[in-house]
Amino acid sequence: MNIQIFGTKKCFDSKKAERYFKERGIKYQFIDMKEKGMSRGELNNVKQALGGIDNLIDQGHKDKDMLALLKYLSDEDKEEKILENPQIIRTPVVRNGKKATIGYCPDVWKEWD
Questions:
Q1: What is the pLDDT of residues 28-44, one digit of tens each?
Q2: In Å, what is the CA distance from 67 to each residue of 20, 61, 85, 87, 108?
């Protein structure tokens, strides 16, 4: 397994995801979305695994102007805005190759080999 956890240090679900893999002795890489964010390739893989770019967006985010703007953009433009503003993505995004989940999903992670 090649686990990547995209999250923030203050996100409780990100901490729970880290604990889940740590307790099972599974190596993972934690990427802080406030510092780095996702590359275009990572975003494309996650977008395909989750069924579209709209599933990545945190509808409860405090930047209401950004959320309103994203509603009216095409998918390509949404992708650009998300790459520029990775804090708008729901966390944690847990990625294992071409598979990905958003949020705390231990039932799905159990199925990964």
A1: 999 998 888 888 888 88
A2: 31, 8, 11, 12, 28
